[in-house]
Design a protein that fits this description.
Keywords: Hydrolase. The chain has 301 residues and is α/β, with parallel strands linked by helices. The protein contains 10 helices and 7 strands. The chain starts with a strand and ends in a 5-residue tail after the last helix.
Length: 301
């Protein structure tokens, strides 16, 4: 059996070269997965744009209507950090469905990954921080609503706190939110996750991996969810433009292995999303994101 991977050409909204958000990384990631033999062009599970009623499970009705109507106020576009063009909006809709699909595939196969997702700064009221919709928020709410799961864990290792996810699920006891993030990085102020693990600037592989291990062990007897949403942001890397940590490629690979092996050894399905990563060397960035998918293939049975 091969790793189920969700991808759509719509994930690349074709931003101008040099834009602060490296939009072309999604296409380059898919190309890298094909080149590495982890997928073929015909093996990707391709998502359609998310139905509007799905998105309203996690987001304010007025905001969702504005996005679907291609009429987002300038002040919200400023919070998101890019112009909300039709391509950008369709990208967000497809990425949201992509995480829903990956979650359902994970429930069937034990593990599955999206080549996008992890848009964790979007809160219930609006988007923010390069995030239009909170795809994990929508997916978890939809699966709970449909009865496909009764509980979920969000294990977020993006370098920035998963503030939007924490806010969306602050009054939802069936979803446990964990965020390991650089303490002094965006956002300011932060929200309160069920478990926040703030990290000091410049943390390197050894100390970081020890912290991940201790966090996983803390969760072992505390929660046994029906699914884990693993946000595998690579903006923890030492060369990331928006990170404050100092991991290497090896450190990221070991993190992925620690997290996935912990939950799969407990029989818990894992849905992987790629989270953040920012670099002018977008080819190197795409290879960094591909680490998640390469490691995930080790746990397909």
């Amino acid at each position: 059996m091969t790793l189920p991977i969700v991808h759509s050409p719509a994930y690349d909204a074709q931003f101008p070269v040099g834009h602060r958000f490296p939009m072309s990384k999604y296409k380059l990631l898919a190309d890298a997965l094909v080149r590495d033999g982890l997928a073929t062009k015909d093996s990707f599970h391709v998502p359609a744009p998310a139905p509007i009623n799905w998105v309203k499970l996690a987001h304010d009705t007025e905001y969702v209507d504005q996005v679907y109507g291609f009429d987002v106020p300038p002040q919200i576009q400023k919070l998101v950090g890019f112009e909300m063009t039709e391509r950008a909006i369709v990208r967000a809709q497809c990425a949201t469905t992509g995480t829903v699909m990956a979650a359902r595939l994970a429930l069937e196969a034990g593990i599955a990954c999206n080549t996008a997702g992890g848009s964790h700064h979007a809160n219930s009221q609006h988007g923010a921080g390069f995030c239009t919709f909170n795809d994990v928020g929508v997916a978890a709410r939809l699966l709970l609503e449909s009865g496909e799961i009764s509980s979920a864990l969000v294990f977020d290792t993006d370098v920035h706190q998963g503030d939007g996810t924490a806010e969306i699920f602050k009054d939802e006891p069936r979803v446990f939110t964990v965020s390991l993030h650089a303490e002094n990085n965006y956002p300011h102020p932060k929200q309160i996750s069920d478990l926040d693990v703030p990290l000091p600037d410049g943390m390197e592989d050894h100390a970081y991996l020890k912290t991940v291990t201790l966090t996983l062990e803390k969760l072992r007897n505390q929660i046994h969810p029906d699914i884990v949403f693993f946000n595998a942001g690579v903006d923890v890397h030492k060369d990331d433009q928006l990170g404050r940590l100092a991991l290497t490629d090896f450190g990221i690979e070991q993190r992925e292995r620690l997290v996935i092996s912990h939950f799969r050894s407990r029989g818990i399905p894992v849905c992987g999303v790629i989270g953040g990563g920012y670099s002018k060397d977008i080819e190197a960035l795409a290879q960094r994101h591909a680490i998640l998918h390469r490691v995930a293939t080790e746990f397909v049975f």
